[in-house]
Automatic annotation (TrEMBL):
Sites where the protein binds Fe cation 2: H228, E229, H261, E262
Protein name: Deoxyhypusine hydroxylase
Coiled-coil blocks: none
Binding site residues for Fe cation 1: H59, E60, H92, E93
EC primary class: oxidoreductase
Cofactor entry: Fe(2+)
Keywords, sorted A to Z: Hypusine biosynthesis, Iron, Metal-binding, Monooxygenase, Oxidoreductase, Repeat
Cofactor-binding details, from the entry: Binds 2 Fe(2+) ions per subunit.
Gene this chain is encoded by: LIA1
Reaction(s) catalysed by this chain's protein: [eIF5A protein]-deoxyhypusine + AH2 + O2 = [eIF5A protein]-hypusine + A + H2O
PANTHER family: DEOXYHYPUSINE HYDROXYLASE, PBS LYASE HEAT-LIKE PROTEIN
A Pfam family annotated for this UniProt entry: HEAT_2
Family that this chain belongs to: Belongs to the deoxyhypusine hydroxylase family.
Entry's EC annotation: 1.14.99.29
Length: 312
């Protein structure tokens, strides 16, 4: 448990020249674990501080603010979302975070950004609005999950941009893996429904469902945002059978950096020696966010190795 006195010290570490990007990520997640209003205030300050030049770090701060679901972050997230000079990946994460914290006050802002010239931003804001509409239909809070849905919620402790299909509520929840895969790959269906199919497959969490998501990652031609989310989900599933697909996504230099970055971090979550060998090849990539992500992913892989040693 992070004590209140530790929060200020953690924030100070973000600005130490000797602190590498991987360590900064650890600091950010420690502030998330603190969970206090003060931690939110400091994370918002870090996101607004021009001293922090790393897109990876700023995007992670925005992600964490969304996961904390504290409305005190709304003003900062809106500020970064609407700034056209901000990096696309950071703007995307701010839009998603507004959906995560159910920031109904930001509705008009999100609606305006659905006309943004940057596709990843407008798609994110459309998804955030869909999530807000879904939450409103749930009377402002998620229904009590039943059966396997509740069990899976204990495994993936994240606030997702779209909910999985719910048992006893959505007919799609009883669909076969193959049928959900068809929905996932259907580029004529809304991103929100495709995301719901993706998170349902994630929650089933088998090699088979992971490979279905892997296939969607490589086959999709409609949306970098969708492909980045597929890579993120594969990182949550941590299945070695996905390594080949993730490596292919990382190797595509013409791919959007948000997809390559997420593929790198997912490879780190796989955590095998083979995964580390792949990451080492891209630690000097021309794209800053990709090479920083590889370094962070190697740090993640090292953590997984320690856990595996402790729990053989």
């Amino acid at each position: 448990m992070v004590q209140s006195s530790d929060v200020e010290e953690l924030f100070t570490r973000l600005w130490c020249e000797s602190v590498c990007v991987a360590e900064k990520m650890n600091v950010i997640f420690s502030l998330k674990e603190a969970g206090s209003d003060r931690a939110v205030t400091l994370l918002c300050a870090a996101l607004m501080d021009p001293r922090e030049r790393s897109v990876l770090v700023r995007h992670e701060i925005a992600y964490v603010l969304g996961q904390m679901q504290n409305p005190k972050a709304r003003e900062t997230l809106v500020d970064r979302l609407v700034d056209a000079n901000e990096d696309t990946i950071v703007r995307h994460e701010c839009g998603e975070a507004l959906g995560a914290i159910v920031a109904l006050e930001a509705w008009d802002t999100l609606l305006a950004q659905t006309r943004d010239p940057v596709p990843e931003v407008r798609e994110t804001c459309s998804l955030a609005l869909e999530r807000l509409r879904w939450m409103q239909r749930q009377n402002g809070q998620q229904k009590h999950l039943t059966g396997t849905s509740r069990d899976k919620a204990l495994v993936f402790r994240t606030v997702d941009p779209a909910p999985p299909f719910e048992v006893d509520v959505d007919p799609e929840a009883s669909w076969s893996d193959e049928a959900l895969g068809e929905l996932l790959r259907d580029e004529n269906v809304s991103l929100f429904r495709r995301y719901r199919a993706m998170f349902t497959l994630r929650d089933r969490n088998t090699d088979k469902t992971a490979l279905i998501v892997s296939d969607a990652l490589l086959q999709d031609r409609s949306s970098a945002l969708f492909r980045h989310e597929a890579a993120y989900v594969l990182g949550q599933m941590c299945r070695p059978c996905t390594l080949a697909a993730l490596e292919k996504a990382l190797a595509k230099h013409q791919e959007h950096p948000m997809v390559r970055h997420e593929a790198a971090e997912a490879i780190g979550a796989v955590g095998t020696q083979e995964a580390c060998t792949v990451l080492e090849q891209y630690c000097n990539d021309a794209d800053v966010i990709v090479r920083e992500s590889c370094l962070v992913a190697l740090d993640i892989a090292a953590d997984y190795a320690i856990l595996n040693d402790l729990n053989p």
